[in-house]
Input
Amino acid sequence: MRTNEDLLSSLPADGTLAGRTALVTGSSGGIGEAVARVLAASGADTVVSGRNPERTQAVVDAITASGGRAHALTADLGADPAAIRAFAQGAEDALGGRVDILVNNAGVYPGFRTDAVTDDEMQALWATNIRAPHVLVASLAPRMAERGSGAVVNIGSWMARVGVPNKALYPATKAAIEQLTRSWAAEYGPRGVRVNTVAPGATATRGTAKNADALAAMTKATPAGTPVRPIDIAYAVRYLASDEAAFVHGATLDVDGGMAATRLR
Ligand SMILES: NC(=O)c1ccc[n+]([C@@H]2O[C@H](COP(=O)([O-])OP(=O)(O)OC[C@H]3O[C@@H](n4cnc5c(N)ncnc54)[C@H](OP(=O)(O)O)[C@@H]3O)[C@@H](O)[C@H]2O)c1
Output
Protein backbone atom coordinates (compact mmCIF):
# COMPACT_ATOMS: atom_id res chain seq x y z
CA MET A 1 0.00 0.00 0.00
CA ARG A 2 1.37 3.45 -0.91
CA THR A 3 2.27 5.72 1.98
CA ASN A 4 0.56 8.98 2.85
CA GLU A 5 3.71 10.96 2.03
CA ASP A 6 4.14 9.25 -1.35
CA LEU A 7 0.53 9.95 -2.29
CA LEU A 8 0.66 13.58 -1.12
CA SER A 9 3.84 14.25 -3.08
CA SER A 10 2.31 13.04 -6.36
CA LEU A 11 -1.26 14.34 -6.20
CA PRO A 12 -2.82 14.55 -9.64
CA ALA A 13 -4.16 18.02 -10.39
CA ASP A 14 -7.86 18.12 -11.23
CA GLY A 15 -10.57 20.75 -11.44
CA THR A 16 -13.14 19.34 -9.01
CA LEU A 17 -13.01 22.50 -6.88
CA ALA A 18 -11.82 25.00 -9.50
CA GLY A 19 -12.85 28.55 -8.64
CA ARG A 20 -13.67 27.69 -5.01
CA THR A 21 -11.99 28.96 -1.87
CA ALA A 22 -11.34 26.91 1.26
CA LEU A 23 -10.33 27.38 4.89
CA VAL A 24 -8.93 24.26 6.59
CA THR A 25 -8.27 24.58 10.31
CA GLY A 26 -5.41 22.59 11.83
CA SER A 27 -3.78 22.11 8.42
CA SER A 28 -0.16 22.64 9.48
CA GLY A 29 0.10 18.85 9.88
CA GLY A 30 -1.71 15.54 10.12
CA ILE A 31 -5.18 15.09 8.65
CA GLY A 32 -5.65 18.82 8.05
CA GLU A 33 -2.48 19.05 5.98
CA ALA A 34 -3.67 16.22 3.73
CA VAL A 35 -7.07 17.92 3.39
CA ALA A 36 -5.51 21.28 2.47
CA ARG A 37 -3.18 19.65 -0.07
CA VAL A 38 -5.96 17.61 -1.71
CA LEU A 39 -8.39 20.57 -1.87
CA ALA A 40 -5.66 22.78 -3.35
CA ALA A 41 -4.68 20.10 -5.90
CA SER A 42 -8.35 20.02 -6.85
CA GLY A 43 -8.31 23.72 -7.68
CA ALA A 44 -9.38 25.40 -4.44
CA ASP A 45 -7.57 28.54 -3.31
CA THR A 46 -6.82 27.40 0.24
CA VAL A 47 -6.01 28.96 3.61
CA VAL A 48 -3.66 26.72 5.60
CA SER A 49 -3.76 27.32 9.34
CA GLY A 50 -2.20 26.16 12.57
CA ARG A 51 -0.48 27.59 15.62
CA ASN A 52 3.07 26.92 14.45
CA PRO A 53 4.15 29.43 11.75
CA GLU A 54 6.98 27.30 10.29
CA ARG A 55 4.84 24.18 9.89
CA THR A 56 1.99 26.24 8.44
CA GLN A 57 4.26 27.94 5.90
CA ALA A 58 5.84 24.58 4.95
CA VAL A 59 2.41 23.26 3.90
CA VAL A 60 1.76 26.43 1.88
CA ASP A 61 5.14 26.00 0.20
CA ALA A 62 4.39 22.36 -0.68
CA ILE A 63 1.09 23.41 -2.26
CA THR A 64 2.52 26.29 -4.25
CA ALA A 65 5.52 24.18 -5.39
CA SER A 66 3.08 21.77 -7.00
CA GLY A 67 1.12 24.52 -8.74
CA GLY A 68 -1.68 25.16 -6.22
CA ARG A 69 -2.78 28.37 -4.50
CA ALA A 70 -2.47 28.68 -0.71
CA HIS A 71 -2.06 31.24 2.08
CA ALA A 72 -0.76 30.82 5.65
CA LEU A 73 -2.83 32.08 8.59
CA THR A 74 -1.73 31.26 12.13
CA ALA A 75 -4.05 31.39 15.11
CA ASP A 76 -4.74 29.58 18.37
CA LEU A 77 -8.29 28.27 18.00
CA GLY A 78 -8.43 27.69 21.74
CA ALA A 79 -8.49 31.48 22.09
CA ASP A 80 -11.55 33.57 22.94
CA PRO A 81 -14.37 33.95 20.40
CA ALA A 82 -13.36 37.47 19.37
CA ALA A 83 -9.99 36.12 18.19
CA ILE A 84 -11.75 33.33 16.24
CA ARG A 85 -14.00 35.91 14.53
CA ALA A 86 -10.90 37.89 13.57
CA PHE A 87 -9.39 34.66 12.21
CA ALA A 88 -12.50 34.07 10.06
CA GLN A 89 -12.24 37.63 8.74
CA GLY A 90 -8.54 37.10 8.03
CA ALA A 91 -9.34 33.99 6.01
CA GLU A 92 -11.97 35.85 3.98
CA ASP A 93 -9.52 38.67 3.32
CA ALA A 94 -6.80 36.22 2.20
CA LEU A 95 -9.27 34.50 -0.13
CA GLY A 96 -10.52 37.61 -1.90
CA GLY A 97 -13.60 38.15 0.26
CA ARG A 98 -15.29 34.77 0.47
CA VAL A 99 -14.87 31.30 2.00
CA ASP A 100 -16.78 28.67 -0.01
CA ILE A 101 -15.56 25.62 1.92
CA LEU A 102 -14.90 25.50 5.67
CA VAL A 103 -13.22 22.40 7.10
CA ASN A 104 -13.33 22.31 10.90
CA ASN A 105 -10.44 19.92 11.50
CA ALA A 106 -8.30 21.38 14.31
CA GLY A 107 -8.80 19.33 17.44
CA VAL A 108 -7.08 18.14 20.58
CA TYR A 109 -7.42 14.67 22.07
CA PRO A 110 -5.79 14.30 25.47
CA GLY A 111 -6.44 10.80 26.72
CA PHE A 112 -6.65 10.28 30.44
CA ARG A 113 -8.78 8.72 33.10
CA THR A 114 -11.78 10.92 33.81
CA ASP A 115 -10.44 11.77 37.28
CA ALA A 116 -7.05 12.76 35.81
CA VAL A 117 -8.26 15.31 33.24
CA THR A 118 -7.03 18.75 34.28
CA ASP A 119 -9.08 21.93 34.20
CA ASP A 120 -6.85 23.25 31.41
CA GLU A 121 -7.45 20.10 29.32
CA MET A 122 -11.20 20.40 29.86
CA GLN A 123 -11.07 24.00 28.71
CA ALA A 124 -8.91 23.16 25.65
CA LEU A 125 -11.27 20.33 24.60
CA TRP A 126 -14.32 22.58 24.79
CA ALA A 127 -12.69 25.62 23.22
CA THR A 128 -10.84 23.91 20.35
CA ASN A 129 -13.18 21.04 19.48
CA ILE A 130 -16.60 22.70 19.92
CA ARG A 131 -16.45 26.47 20.47
CA ALA A 132 -14.08 27.30 17.60
CA PRO A 133 -16.10 25.33 14.99
CA HIS A 134 -19.25 26.99 16.33
CA VAL A 135 -17.80 30.49 16.06
CA LEU A 136 -16.42 29.78 12.57
CA VAL A 137 -19.75 28.47 11.32
CA ALA A 138 -21.57 31.41 12.92
CA SER A 139 -19.13 33.77 11.16
CA LEU A 140 -18.94 32.17 7.72
CA ALA A 141 -22.09 30.09 7.05
CA PRO A 142 -24.48 33.09 6.99
CA ARG A 143 -22.33 34.70 4.28
CA MET A 144 -22.30 31.39 2.33
CA ALA A 145 -26.10 31.37 2.70
CA GLU A 146 -26.36 34.93 1.36
CA ARG A 147 -24.47 33.75 -1.72
CA GLY A 148 -26.69 30.65 -1.93
CA SER A 149 -23.88 28.09 -1.79
CA GLY A 150 -21.17 26.69 0.44
CA ALA A 151 -19.98 23.56 2.20
CA VAL A 152 -18.89 22.89 5.77
CA VAL A 153 -17.12 19.64 6.61
CA ASN A 154 -16.53 18.87 10.27
CA ILE A 155 -14.01 16.28 11.41
CA GLY A 156 -15.55 13.94 13.98
CA SER A 157 -14.24 10.61 15.21
CA TRP A 158 -15.14 6.92 15.25
CA MET A 159 -15.02 7.30 19.04
CA ALA A 160 -18.14 9.49 19.07
CA ARG A 161 -20.43 6.46 19.05
CA VAL A 162 -18.61 3.88 21.18
CA GLY A 163 -17.44 3.81 24.78
CA VAL A 164 -13.64 3.97 25.00
CA PRO A 165 -11.97 3.81 28.42
CA ASN A 166 -9.89 6.80 29.52
CA LYS A 167 -11.18 9.03 26.70
CA ALA A 168 -14.62 10.11 27.90
CA LEU A 169 -14.56 13.85 27.28
CA TYR A 170 -12.86 13.80 23.86
CA PRO A 171 -15.44 11.50 22.21
CA ALA A 172 -18.15 13.61 23.81
CA THR A 173 -16.82 16.66 21.94
CA LYS A 174 -16.94 14.66 18.71
CA ALA A 175 -20.50 13.48 19.42
CA ALA A 176 -21.34 17.16 19.86
CA ILE A 177 -19.82 17.93 16.45
CA GLU A 178 -21.94 15.21 14.82
CA GLN A 179 -25.06 16.72 16.38
CA LEU A 180 -24.04 20.27 15.43
CA THR A 181 -23.60 18.96 11.87
CA ARG A 182 -27.22 17.77 11.79
CA SER A 183 -28.47 21.01 13.33
CA TRP A 184 -26.46 23.19 10.95
CA ALA A 185 -27.64 21.09 7.97
CA ALA A 186 -31.21 21.89 9.03
CA GLU A 187 -30.41 25.56 9.66
CA TYR A 188 -28.33 26.40 6.57
CA GLY A 189 -29.14 23.60 4.10
CA PRO A 190 -32.32 25.21 2.77
CA ARG A 191 -30.20 28.25 1.84
CA GLY A 192 -27.65 26.25 -0.15
CA VAL A 193 -25.04 25.43 2.50
CA ARG A 194 -24.34 21.72 2.97
CA VAL A 195 -22.92 20.61 6.32
CA ASN A 196 -21.49 17.11 6.87
CA THR A 197 -19.04 15.21 9.09
CA VAL A 198 -16.16 12.89 8.22
CA ALA A 199 -15.42 10.52 11.10
CA PRO A 200 -11.83 9.22 10.91
CA GLY A 201 -10.73 5.99 12.50
CA ALA A 202 -7.34 5.59 14.16
CA THR A 203 -5.15 7.62 11.81
CA ALA A 204 -1.36 7.85 11.68
CA THR A 205 -0.47 11.52 12.27
CA ARG A 206 2.05 13.57 14.23
CA GLY A 207 -0.50 13.73 17.04
CA THR A 208 -0.80 9.93 17.29
CA ALA A 209 2.86 9.10 16.48
CA LYS A 210 3.77 8.49 20.11
CA ASN A 211 1.01 5.85 20.26
CA ALA A 212 1.96 4.12 16.99
CA ASP A 213 2.03 0.67 18.60
CA ALA A 214 -1.40 1.15 20.13
CA LEU A 215 -2.73 2.39 16.78
CA ALA A 216 -1.39 -0.73 15.02
CA ALA A 217 -2.92 -2.97 17.67
CA MET A 218 -6.30 -1.18 17.53
CA THR A 219 -6.55 -1.48 13.76
CA LYS A 220 -5.10 -4.96 13.27
CA ALA A 221 -8.48 -6.67 13.47
CA THR A 222 -10.40 -4.12 11.38
CA PRO A 223 -11.31 -4.95 7.78
CA ALA A 224 -8.56 -2.56 6.59
CA GLY A 225 -6.05 -4.03 9.03
CA THR A 226 -3.87 -0.91 9.38
CA PRO A 227 -4.25 2.71 10.58
CA VAL A 228 -6.02 5.12 8.26
CA ARG A 229 -3.81 7.44 6.18
CA PRO A 230 -4.59 11.17 6.38
CA ILE A 231 -5.09 11.28 2.62
CA ASP A 232 -7.97 8.80 2.93
CA ILE A 233 -9.78 11.35 5.13
CA ALA A 234 -8.88 14.12 2.69
CA TYR A 235 -10.55 12.41 -0.28
CA ALA A 236 -13.76 12.00 1.75
CA VAL A 237 -13.65 15.70 2.68
CA ARG A 238 -13.15 16.65 -0.96
CA TYR A 239 -16.15 14.57 -1.99
CA LEU A 240 -18.40 16.18 0.64
CA ALA A 241 -17.14 19.66 -0.31
CA SER A 242 -17.76 19.08 -4.02
CA ASP A 243 -20.87 19.22 -6.19
CA GLU A 244 -20.71 15.41 -6.40
CA ALA A 245 -22.24 15.47 -2.89
CA ALA A 246 -25.00 17.94 -3.86
CA PHE A 247 -27.68 15.86 -2.13
CA VAL A 248 -25.67 14.96 0.98
CA HIS A 249 -26.76 17.00 4.01
CA GLY A 250 -26.15 16.31 7.71
CA ALA A 251 -24.37 13.00 7.10
CA THR A 252 -21.50 11.38 8.95
CA LEU A 253 -19.13 9.52 6.63
CA ASP A 254 -17.00 6.97 8.47
CA VAL A 255 -13.48 6.64 7.06
CA ASP A 256 -12.15 4.28 9.67
CA GLY A 257 -11.12 1.07 7.93
CA GLY A 258 -14.36 -0.49 9.17
CA MET A 259 -13.55 -0.02 12.85
CA ALA A 260 -16.90 1.34 14.04
CA ALA A 261 -19.00 -0.92 11.85
CA THR A 262 -17.36 -4.24 12.68
CA ARG A 263 -15.42 -4.19 15.94
CA LEU A 264 -13.74 -7.44 14.85
CA ARG A 265 -11.57 -9.23 17.42
N1 LIG B 1 -5.43 10.93 14.36
C1 LIG B 1 -6.49 10.18 14.70
O1 LIG B 1 -6.39 8.98 14.99
C2 LIG B 1 -7.87 10.82 14.71
C3 LIG B 1 -8.99 9.97 14.79
C4 LIG B 1 -10.27 10.53 14.80
C5 LIG B 1 -10.41 11.91 14.71
N2 LIG B 1 -9.30 12.71 14.64
C6 LIG B 1 -9.52 14.16 14.57
O2 LIG B 1 -8.88 14.66 13.41
C7 LIG B 1 -8.43 16.00 13.64
C8 LIG B 1 -6.95 16.11 13.31
O3 LIG B 1 -6.24 15.16 14.07
P1 LIG B 1 -4.68 14.86 13.79
O4 LIG B 1 -4.39 13.51 14.34
O5 LIG B 1 -4.34 15.18 12.39
O6 LIG B 1 -4.01 15.94 14.78
P2 LIG B 1 -2.49 16.42 14.90
O7 LIG B 1 -1.56 15.56 14.12
O8 LIG B 1 -2.26 16.60 16.36
O9 LIG B 1 -2.57 17.86 14.21
C9 LIG B 1 -3.45 18.79 14.77
C10 LIG B 1 -3.53 20.01 13.88
O10 LIG B 1 -4.43 20.92 14.51
C11 LIG B 1 -3.74 22.09 14.87
N3 LIG B 1 -4.20 22.55 16.17
C12 LIG B 1 -4.32 21.86 17.31
N4 LIG B 1 -4.76 22.65 18.29
C13 LIG B 1 -4.91 23.88 17.75
C14 LIG B 1 -5.31 25.12 18.25
N5 LIG B 1 -5.63 25.30 19.53
N6 LIG B 1 -5.35 26.19 17.42
C15 LIG B 1 -5.00 26.05 16.11
N7 LIG B 1 -4.60 24.89 15.57
C16 LIG B 1 -4.55 23.82 16.39
C17 LIG B 1 -2.26 21.73 14.85
O11 LIG B 1 -1.53 22.90 14.55
P3 LIG B 1 -0.07 23.26 15.17
O12 LIG B 1 0.68 21.97 15.29
O13 LIG B 1 0.50 24.22 14.19
O14 LIG B 1 -0.33 23.87 16.49
C18 LIG B 1 -2.20 20.71 13.74
O15 LIG B 1 -2.16 21.33 12.48
C19 LIG B 1 -8.77 16.32 15.09
O16 LIG B 1 -10.01 17.00 15.14
C20 LIG B 1 -8.90 14.93 15.72
O17 LIG B 1 -9.73 14.95 16.85
C21 LIG B 1 -8.04 12.20 14.64
About this structure: Residues 26-32, 50-52, 55, 75-78, 105-109, 128, 155, 157, 200, 202-203, 205-208 surround NAP (CB under 6 Å).
